Amino acid sequence: MEIDSKGDSFLNEHVGDINFNSLPCPGSVSIPLSRHIFAIMITFRTAIFVLIPVLLLACNKPSGQFEKPVISIGVVVTDLNRSLDFYKNVLGMKETGVINMDAELGEKSGLTGGLPARVKVLKLEDSGQATEWKLMTFEGLPQPARQQHIQDAAGMRYVSISVRSVAPFLERLRKNNIPLLGQTPVELQKGVYLILFQDPDGIFIELIGNE
Question: What is the pLDDT of residues 108-166, one digit of tens each?
Fold first, then answer.
């Protein structure tokens, strides 16, 4: 079996310091062949480390009709700057992008009837698998009536977010004078708590996590 100069360079780099005379080899296997087999083993191991992340990503890709296993949610707010401050500085979301929808697209898509929109995209983390929370506003929006409970109106009423600990969120809520609802924090089970509050336009937000 011949090994070209490129193969020799690979062998010298990866296995040159190994004393092959000390390795147990069958009597019929020569030392050069042993070196080549050892190089193949190293190459195989490297290939496995490269393939595993690719396979994991493939496993996470939905096998049905959907390209991603997440839902992007559009939220129309009355005051974009106020809502951005709440979601970024109180809730801790990250602003990851901007979508500019012109009047033509607003008309053709049926979303706005011809009004342009500038959409701020927020996520819990800057990841392709994270849900997009899309904030936008339009002139002349009336302030929505403040609901006291989720059954007070139809439609999407609240979002639920799992967190490692509710403590830093409680601190930011108190610092920004955002009231907790009901009797929260409520202990759901040993050491696990639920807290409930509302965003500036009244969307209920439920956080569940350790103390």
Answer: 999 999 999 999 999 999 998 899 999 999 999 988 888 999 999 999 999 999 999 99
The domains located in the chain, with CATH, are 5-60 (no CATH), 67-143 (3.10.180.10), 144-211 (3.10.180.10)
pLDDT at position 55 = 59
CA-based nearest residue to 211, from 184, 189, 188, 193: 193
Cβ(133)–Cβ(75) below 8 Å? yes
Range 111-117, long-range pairs (CB < 8 A, 24+ positions): 112/138
Helix (H, G, I), strand (E, B) or coil at 154: coil
Residue 94 to residues 90, 91, 116, 131, 134: CA-CA distances in angstroms? 11, 9, 24, 11, 12
Q: What order of strands is seen across the sheet that includes strand 73-76?
A: 73-76, 133-136, 117-123, 94-101
Instruction: Indicate the SS3 state at residue 2.
Output: coil
**Cα 128 to the center of its chain, rounded Å:** 6
20 vs 3: CA distance, rounded Å: 17
